[in-house]
Design goal:
Length: 244
């Protein structure tokens, strides 16, 4: 396919598929529906002690939606990538309409890590992340998880499992379970087998409270106004709970 319409892209995510290219220079995109899907259950994010210390140290500055294009360009700047120009243009259009977001990690004013993805209902579809400094992508993901938990989201889709994601708490679920979780996140209720139902129940999110991607921003402002000790990363580590 070519000339990816942003509305078609959203429809794809809503049905459990997503587009990829064979390379940065590829002229065509194709839709993918993995047999097994990687997700991070938001209440089970693995915050290691070392990452918690880095969060609290204030070594990195973290922002939201301040350098979306720079993040997606950095994610595509590798030997093997599924992000071509067409997909990048579609993502920029989604960002402009409020459906795609980025988390940026800065060190001494330089962009050293980040991630981007698509927001739809109570779901966030993580597309890609990059790191130029140790722990930078982990910091971005920790901030994203805290944002989604604070905002009453229920699904963080990571597409394909990697050792890096597994170390942070990602699990692999079969397509049927993923579709059930996606349906619930988009307002369709819990459907599917008992495994999906158990995961949905474990999320513990209230269906009466709408998702709010910006709730974390207000919480951090309140924490600052209340004189909370330490940098914002301290608040993030508290939101993510106990370490292991």
């Amino acid at each position: 396919m070519s000339r990816l319409d942003p509305r078609l892209l959203l429809q794809g995510y809503a049905t459990g598929i997503f587009p990829m290219a064979d390379s940065r220079d590829a002229s065509e995109l194709f839709w993918v529906e993995p047999r097994n899907r990687a997700i991070i259950p938001l209440e089970r994010f693995h915050l290691a002690r070392s990452l918690r210390r880095t969060l609290r140290s204030g070594k990195f500055d973290v922002t939201r939606d301040q350098a979306f294009q720079a993040v997606i360009t950095a994610c595509a700047d590798r030997e093997e990538t599924w992000i071509n120009d067409e997909l990048e243009r579609a993502m920029l259009a989604l960002h402009g309409s409020g459906h795609a977001h980025s988390v940026e990690v800065w060190l001494a004013g330089e962009l050293v890590g980040g991630l981007y993805g698509v927001k739809l209902g109570r779901a966030f579809f993580g597309e890609s992340m990059f790191s130029r400094e140790r722990d930078a992508s982990k910091i971005a993901l920790a901030w994203l998880v805290a944002r989604l938990r604070t905002g009453n989201f229920t699904l963080l889709d990571c597409q394909f499992m990697t050792e890096h994601l597994a170390s942070l708490g990602a699990i692999s679920v079969p397509r049927e379970t993923y579709v059930a979780l996606l349906s619930a996140a988009l307002g369709g209720g819990a459907v599917g087998g008992s495994a999906a139902g158990a995961l949905i129940e474990a999320l513990g999110k209230s269906p009466e409270v709408p998702p709010d991607f910006f709730a974390l921003d207000r919480l951090l402002e309140l924490a600052g106004a209340a004189g909370a000790a330490g940098p914002a990363g301290y608040v993030i580590s508290q939101l993510l709970g106990q370490t292991s």
